[in-house]
Amino acid sequence: MSLPLRVLYCHCAYANVVPKAVKEDVLRQLTESGVAFDAVPDLCELSAKKDPCLAELAGGGPVKIVACYPRAVKWLFSAAGTPLPTDGIEVLNMRTETADAIAQNLLGRAAPEVTS
Amino acid sequence: MIPLPNATRPTTGSGAFRVVVFEGTGSRPLEPTTRRELVTALLQKGHAVTVVRSGSAASAITGGTLVVLGRFTDAQPERAEGNGGAVAIHFRDIESAPAARAAEMVDEIRNELQLPKPGGWKPWFPVIDYDRCTNCMQCLSFCLFDVYGVSADKKIQVQNQNKCKTDCPACSRVCPEVAILFPKYRHGPINGDVVSSDDVRREVMKVDISALLGGDIYQALRDRSAKSKSRFAKERDEDRALEERQKCLVKLGEKLDIPAEVFASLPSIDEIRAKADAAAARAAAALSGN
């Protein structure tokens, strides 16, 4: 039996390299959708601290990771001693993609209207 | 006690601390705006969050401490254990708690357990792309802050992330293979962007310059320093020497995007020499086994 697809969102704290508007809009669309997901305050911090959460997030089957550059995400997990599997991983880059494009990929539908 | 769905069923123990916003069976769903505010508040306080909804998957919770927040339809115990005691589960009903209060509840549990507070340090440190790294040890020889080390199997590795100087990407610029990333850096390819052929060409040019210096940058710098000392001793103009050094540092800082604070925290020249010698010895020992 194949494992269900998961979503992991990185809030990229401590730096302004991910546009604030993009990460907030992605988070809004995720929270307002009906999907379950995992969210972490900062993948870099978890990697530096070798947080056991990373092993849980890396394992468990296919996952779409909403963060930054795929090369950075891959080696952040590796640096923590929890390398990502080679299959079933897709990284969506909030530094280069729009929030709507990411939401479309994750949720498979057009972005909903802002509710507040 | 409410059953956690299979996707979040605890299995083996670990030291993780996670918050679950539970909206599965036994809990009433949150309004979308409330959910967004709650998740945002938790993330801003540095907590990893899993939103559990019926019918879709989140990652497994394999152990440690779990704080489950929800609008529970049945009374939940304040504390429970899972997986033979491997997971400590703390339930909190957030029926009448606004997002900020719910996030405080999580902090209170963390404080009670005397767990370290998240955050407090901008996670700035090098990450090695081992698909590109050739284990040349240039980064080990270059870094003056003991960030790099050599593993038992003689591979370069980042050993002391917290010794790295915030916002300084200098070591990534000496890497001939563009293999050192700083994910929070502004520009590519240091930020993890795809490495282009132009990037590689630039690095090769740097290596050529290094070779022109005799392949030993530290020796070249020592020679230059000795020559300068001799010249300035003759000129007896220490102010001019200092001015020239400062100009050089400013230029270097601008060229390599190194913050001024890094220069201010450089070790003394004797310490630099000692570190250079120690790094060279470690690098040589590692390379001899390649």
UniProtKB/TrEMBL annotation, chain A:
<protein>
    <submittedName>
        <fullName>Uncharacterized protein</fullName>
    </submittedName>
</protein>
Automatic annotation (TrEMBL), chain B:
<dbReference type="InterPro" id="IPR017896">
    <property type="entry name" value="4Fe4S_Fe-S-bd"/>
</dbReference>
<keyword id="KW-0479">Metal-binding</keyword>
<dbReference type="InterPro" id="IPR050572">
    <property type="entry name" value="Fe-S_Ferredoxin"/>
</dbReference>
<keyword id="KW-0004">4Fe-4S</keyword>
<keyword id="KW-0411">Iron-sulfur</keyword>
<protein>
    <submittedName>
        <fullName>Putative Fe-S containing oxidoreductase(EC:1.-)</fullName>
    </submittedName>
</protein>
<feature type="domain" description="4Fe-4S ferredoxin-type">
    <location>
        <begin position="124"/>
        <end position="153"/>
    </location>
</feature>
<keyword id="KW-0408">Iron</keyword>
<feature type="domain" description="4Fe-4S ferredoxin-type">
    <location>
        <begin position="154"/>
        <end position="185"/>
    </location>
</feature>
<dbReference type="GO" id="GO:0046872">
    <property type="term" value="F:metal ion binding"/>
</dbReference>
<dbReference type="GO" id="GO:0051539">
    <property type="term" value="F:4 iron, 4 sulfur cluster binding"/>
</dbReference>
